Predict the structure.
Amino acid sequence: MQYSKLLISGLLYLFSQPVLAEWQQLDSNDQMVIYLDIDNIEYIDQDRRKIQNLVDFYLPQVAHPNGSQITFQSFIRNIEVNCGTHRQKTLDIVFYKHTNARGEEVYRSQINADWSEIPRSAGNALLVDLACAPRTI
């Protein structure tokens, strides 16, 4: 009986974690670290890519989506990037209680935002460069 409880607990823990991502650090500052999942870049067509990025905050953050308060320390965004136009749109975002997308999922939102210019910061420029680089076999 104890073995089956332990096995179920272990499986639940594994399935609650982000799926085997290879996070490459892109940028950091005194508040956060930005990562890109370089092993799971999805090629939609010649110009478009679907990517995931993780943002970890050194201190817990508070937000008020839809009138409710959440406290989180990381989030993962699914983003579509257009390499030809250097535009992006956020598809969805999931907020987590702890860094590295660990712990309780505190909020999830399907956004499917409009296309927007990619901000010209070091982290965002590298995100586009890595997402749009030719893939080697």
